[in-house]
Each structure stands twice: as C-alpha cells, then as structure tokens.
C-alpha cells in the first residue's frame, strides 16, 4: 500500500538512488545503507520546513545523509565484502568495475566521500563543502589527493604488490 | 599562471567552478604546458572511469521506496496525533487556568486562610479577644450586614454558638464564629456577598477539612477536624441559608 505523496516526497524521492549509492559506499552494507537512507528521508521530512524553496534539494538531502551517518557513530572498521557490492550492468567491464571499487575502498573515508560526491554525484566543490561542513579549500585538497591516490592504484603499469595498504576504514 | 597553481585549481577547473577569466588563464597554460594538459586529461579519464563503474551499478530502490513512504506516513500520523494531543492539553491547561484564576483561587486561598485561622485562633487558642456575649455577637453581625437569626440558625443540632470575632480571609473581612458541642469545636466564617451562588466545594487541608458554601447572599466557610463533620456542618449551613 503506497501512501499518497506530498510535496516533500515528490521533491525528495527522485534522489533516492543517488542517496542509496553513496550510503552503500559509506555503510558498506546494503541493509545498513537502506536504514541510513530511510532515516535520512525521515529526518529531511521532519525538517522540511527548514528547506528553502529554490535551493538545492539534492545537496540538502546529502548533507542530512552525511550528518546522520557521522552522528550515528558509524565510524566502525568494516572490511569490504565483495558480495556486498552491487553488480555492474553489462555495458561496463566487470573486472574494471571491480578494480575501481577496490581502489575506491582503499581510499580514506574522507577522500572517498569527496570523490564520490564530486565525480559520481556531480556536486561542485562549493556544494561538497556545504554537505560535509568543511572549508572549500579542504574539499579541493582532499579531491586532488583522492584523484592522485586513485590514479596510482589504477595505473596499468603499477604492480599490485606496490599498492599501499588498505586504509579506508570508516 | 604556473603548474603549481594549475594543480591547486584543478578541482575547480574540472567541476567548472572557475570564473571565465580564471578558466581562460588555465586554458592558456594547458595549451603551452603538455605535462599539465596530460595531468588534467588523466584526471578527466579517471573521473569518467570511476563514474562509469559506479553509475553502472544496479541499485534498485524497489523495497526501500515503500519503506520510506510508510515511515513518513507513520511520522505524519504521529504528528497529527501529537497536534491533537497538544490542542487537548492546551485546552485542559486553559480550563485549569480558568478554574484556578476565576474559581479555585478564591476558594483555595479562602480555605487555606480559614484553616490557618481555625488552627491559630481555635485549636492553639492564641487569640484571646473573642466576643462570647450573644448580644455583642448579634451587634457585631449586624455591623457586618449579617442577620442575627442566621448565626443561630447555622448551629448544627447538638452544637451551640460559643464565641465570635472578626478576621481577614483572602483579603476580605469575615465574621469568625465558633460552635461547640462541649468537646469539639468547629469554625464558621461568614461574609455577605453579591451575585449568584457557586456550588459547595470541599477541600482537605492537612488535618482539617474545609467546606465552602456560597449562596446568593452569603459566603460561608466551615472548618472542622473531620471531613464528615465539616460536610454535615456545611449541609446544615446550606439548608439554613
């Protein structure tokens, strides 16, 4: 049974898949990610009167998502379970997707967060600064370092043995 | 613009956040610096590769969406219940305030003062100036516009008027009458009043029971050590009035 959608749901629900994608990267567990997104949406609904019409709803929702994630103290070290990763579609080379995923997981949580928001979700540095409540200069430096680290890991001539140890605990 | 500045500004350049002037400066540098141009190009390729890998993930929101709709519906219902509860609580508070402000305080203040007076003047016998003579009491009552026959009529069967004096209860002057059956004493406070009478109100304060009766012509407060005795006294007073 679906409840009738109000104005908030019409505004927020289109961003559900983006939120879930990032939540999965943060939580590394599908069930926990769904709980996180559900709680995010509920908090957003409760705070919907604080949202200014015409401002960036997607950035607002992501801000709540990250705030919720960090406030719940989910900074636990969780090893990446490869079966927890979603399956790529058929247009992408599965081995390449796996390689990218592993390289991402090796990044620190801070670097991974800015990279996901900038590269995958398409937020600007200014928006990311707002979402993560950090200065824009910090966003820029984290993004540069994240790209550099990822490039080193994904460079075709870099032997796996030379890759630095995994450090992406949250 | 040098290579270090390009490296610093590359995140803003790639996200398109640089203004037109800065963008042109970076573009000019990239045209003359193959190393920076290659670096930016590699960053673009890397972004595209990451984006491609992650956006291709099959991530269905099929089960999550109804869950969210349900949780919002539940939250909405709770909020409605809370709003109704708040309105109801507000109404109860308003009624309580109204009762306290316009009904209860005079009786409560009156009751507390009456008990205090009864305790001090009758039980502890701290006041010595009483009028015991019937004529003096009648004269005192007349000065307070209280009919003399009312005073006698108030006595319960087995009780007689023992003494009287004037005192203040809740800021108003009352005639304090003490009735006794020889062993027990009860206080009756009388004051003429105007307007429609209110129903009888009874309160227990500490050891004493207080009953206030308001008729159209008189406010009467009865104090006894037993609630039953106070109620009986009040009923006889109400009947007499």
Task: Give an account of the 3D structure.
The complex is a heterodimer of chains A (170) and B (241). Chain A has 170 residues and is mainly α. Chain A has eight helices and no strands. Mean pLDDT of chain A is 78; it is low at 75-90 and 158-170. Chain B has helices at residues 3-14, 20-32, 34-55, 64-123, 134-143, 148-153, 227-240; strands at 160-169, 172-180, 185-192, 201-205, 208-214, 218-224. Chain B has 241 residues and is α+β, with helices and mostly antiparallel strands. The model of chain B has no long low-confidence stretch (mean pLDDT 82). In chain B, helix 1 (3-14) packs parallel to helix 3 (34-55) and helix 2 (20-32) packs across helix 3 (34-55). The relative contact order of chain B is 0.08. At the A-B interface, helix 2, helix 3, helix 5, helix 6 and helix 8 of A face helix 1, helix 3 and helix 4 of B.
Quick synopsis:
The complex is a heterodimer of chains A (170) and B (241). Chain A has 170 residues and is mainly alpha-helical.
Give the count of helical stretches of chain A.
Answer: 8
Characterize the main sheet of chain A: none
- Described by the principal axes of the CA atoms, the overall outline of chain B is rod-shaped
Sketch the major β-sheet of chain B: 6 strands, antiparallel
Number of helices of chain B: 7
Low-confidence stretches of chain A: 75-90, 158-170
Radius of gyration of chain B: 43 Å
Which outline of chain A best applies?
A: globular
Helical content of chain B, roughly? 55-70%
Structural class of chain B: alpha+beta
- Largest chain-chain contact? A-B, 47 and 37 residues
Which structural category do the helix and sheet elements of chain A fall into?
mainly alpha
Please state the average pLDDT score of chain A. 78
Low-confidence stretches of chain B: none
- The portion of residues assigned to helices of chain A is 55-70%
H/E series of chain B, N to C?
A: HHHHHHEEEEEEH
Regarding quaternary structure, what we see is heterodimer
Order of helices and strands of chain A: HHHHHHHH
Distance between the termini of chain A: 36 Å
DSSP E strands of chain B, number: 6
